[in-house]
Amino acid sequence: MEQFEGKVAVITGAASGIGRALAQRCASEGMQVALADVHPGKLQAVATELEESGCKVLTGVVNVADAEQMNAFAAQCRATFGDIHLLFNNAGILRVGMTWQHTAADWEKILSVNVLGVVNGINAFLPAMIEAQTDAHIVNTGSVGSLVAAPGMAQYTACKMAVRGITETLAYDLAALQSPVAVSLLCPGPVLTSISDELLGITDSAAATDAADHLMAGEPGFITPQLCADRVFAGIRANSFWIFTHPFKGYLRAKNEAMLEGSNPRYDEVTFDANP
């Protein structure tokens, strides 16, 4: 897909961070947008911002872990806009801690959002996208953690590796149908988002935190959500399955070579290539 003007995008986790930046980018491309999030204050702030720019916006306070809520939102989107052309399964939460310190309830919570949220988005929107037989694209938000593990990140890594598997399989299934619907896996590196807000005790407010005010602003390697969104749209235009915000071919190549050699896992901090 190369042209976006007049088309329709659906974004989950749209009230802040990467989701908010994707919504802004969609609006700048002349798209109509449907925004879903669990934080009504921030969601309405984003919607108001986009509407003031002339964008037609639909919002839904939706828990992506709830299949019925996602199905109802999808029906509302189709009733409002008709065909959906871009679907960003972006909503996600972060948990950290030693692998054995997470309860079953903790696991159920993060899996329900980070994995089933993607599944529910696919199930709610994709059948109609396939039936429409028009160019469309799905972007599932994974992570660098979709490819490499890190200490203290068992839950997040498990989720994001699952999203990679789901997304790769989805690509094969769509290819088997010769469907015009394409799919990408977004693997962000460090982005100035609010994914850690819940861990820090930060609750919903009417305004999303600007990247310039982020605790990690200015730290090496961190990029703005807007730059992330730019790279996502470049990936969609190029029909790239893999969308990396911070390419790390050298690091990944070394990891894969160690695995092929049968070396035991040894953690080295992820390093990114100099040129994106």
TrEMBL record:
PROSITE patterns: ADH_SHORT (PS00061)
Protein name (database record): SDR family NAD(P)-dependent oxidoreductase
Domain of life: Bacteria
Family: Belongs to the short-chain dehydrogenases/reductases (SDR) family.
Entry keywords, A to Z: Oxidoreductase
Record's keyword annotation contains Glycosyltransferase: no
Stored SUPFAM superfamilies: NAD(P)-binding Rossmann-fold domains
Domain Ketoreductase: 7-194
A Pfam cross-reference name: adh_short
Transmembrane segments: none
Molecular function in Gene Ontology: oxidoreductase activity
InterPro entries: KR_dom, NAD(P)-bd_dom_sf, Sc_DH/Rdtase_CS, SDR_fam
Naturally occurring in which organism (per UniProt): Parahaliea aestuarii
